[in-house]
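seq:
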Amino acid sequence: MASKQNAQTILIEQLKLQVGNISAAIEQQGHTAFGTSRLLSNDEITDFSIEFLELMVALLDSKDPLNHREPAFEALRIFFSNVSKHLLIRGGKMDDLVRYIQFLQRSFLDTLQDDKKVGLDDTRAILLLLSNIFNELSLEVFQTYLKEKEQTILAQQEELRETSTPITEIWDGVLTLPIIGILDSSRTMVVMESLLNRIASDRAKAVVMDVTGVRSIDSQVSHHLIQMMRAIQLMGADAILTGIRPEIARALTSLNIDLGNVTTRATLSDGLKEAFRRMNIHVSAASDI
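struct:
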C-alpha cells in the first residue's frame, strides 16, 4: 500500500511538471465560473489561480497536509475564506463556489491520467489525500457562507429596527416617535437608546410618542411603553402618548395598566398641539395672520 508521503511526493512532482497546464485550466475555469458574471475581474482570476497553486504546493510539501495546525493548511484555509467572502459580497452563489472547488480537485486528478508510472496503490492514496484536503476546503467555504449570511441577516434586522422607528424633530425641542408593528424587549432597548440620545443631543423639551401603528397591546408591550415614557421624563422632557385606539384602551383597562401619570391625546396632531402649548408656542393658519 502506498504511503501518504509517497502520494504527496507524486503530486508535487506532477505539479512541477504540469504547472503550466494546470494553471491555464484553473484560470479558464475561473473565467467560466466568475468572469462571465463579472464577479471577478480577469486580473483577479489570474492572481487567485496563481496564489492557489502556490499554497497547494506548500501544503503538499508540509509534514502533514491534513493537520489543521499546519501553517500551510491555515494559509490555504484563509485563502479560500477570503475568496468566498469576496465573491459572496459581490452576489456570488454557494453552488458556484462548490463547483469551482470540485473542478480544482479534478484538475489535479487529470494530471495523473497520462502518467503511466503512477500505479494503482499510488492512485488510491492520491485520491484519498486530495479528497480529504478538498473536503476540508469545501467545509470552510460552507462555514464562511453561513457566517456571511448570518451577518447580513443581523445587519438587515438592525437596519429594519432603526428605519421602522424614525425619530423626527418636528419643531425646535419637539420630537415625534411613531411606533409601528411589534414592540418587543430588544426593539424597546434599541428605540430607547436612540431616543434618549436624541433628547440629549437636540435638548428636546417634549416627545410625542404615537402608537397608532401598534397592532396589539399586552402586558409586556404596556410595560415597555411605560418604561419608555418614564425614561423620557427622567431626561427632563415631557412625554405625550397619542394614537390609543378604542381596542387598545380596552386592552389597557383589562390589564389594569395605570396611565394616570401619562399625558395622552387621541391623535398625533392633538399631541403636537399639547407639546406646543406646554412650550408656549402658538401656531396659526396662514389665513389668521
